[in-house]
Design brief:
two-stranded antiparallel ribbon, 5 helices, mainly alpha
Length: about 180
């Protein structure tokens, strides 16, 4: 299952899409989600999402510079990576809290629709646990504490519109020079 999530800095999950099998490309899931519409509405408020290299660079979606040539681009990539660790850590917490989502907890032998519902329910319970400050109790075991990393999928930067790349370059020069 390829799960696309958006989370805030406090690991609160604000959007989850769990409708596509693992073979579906991240950019396809993004295009077929509500995120482009929502971000289009928020863009005038200077709200950006950060994504890995599996996503196209868009005016509201900041992705790493593929081949950084300047120190500013390198610093931008470093800051992007540090900030994106929040989502990677959130995925790890979700899998640790709900072992049925982690491969060591077994597989979910249900229909695709039921698996989607289970993932969404786990995300909602995760948010509720954060809101209610439920302590995270970790069992002792070899896989506990392992934070799952979201593997980047190569995408051609040429897919991104030139204006969006110029926009990212402008941000890079302004804040990371």
């Amino acid at each position: 299952m390829n799960v696309q999530m958006v989370c805030l800095a406090d690991q609160y999950i604000s959007q989850v899409n769990a409708m596509f099998p693992g073979s579906v490309h991240d950019a396809y899931i993004l295009r077929n989600s509500s995120i482009p519409y929502v971000m289009g509405q928020l863009q005038r408020h200077c709200v950006w999402l950060l994504g890995d290299s599996g996503y196209p660079n868009l005016s509201w979606l900041r992705t790493p510079v593929r081949n950084p040539r300047t120190r500013a681009e390198e610093r931008y990539n470093e800051a992007n990576g540090r900030t994106r660790r929040v989502i990677e850590h959130t995925f790890g917490l979700l899998k640790a809290r709900f072992r049925c989502l982690h491969m060591t907890g077994g597989s979910l032998f249900y229909s695709l629709r039921k698996v989607c519902q289970i993932i969404i329910a786990c995300c909602m319970l995760h948010n509720l646990a954060l809101r209610c400050q439920v302590p995270f109790l970790q069992e002792d075991g070899p896989d506990d504490g392992v934070v799952a990393a979201v593997e980047p999928v190569d995408s051609d930067e040429e897919e991104a519109e030139e204006e969006d790349i110029d926009n990212r370059d402008s941000v890079t020069q302004q804040y990371f020079q």
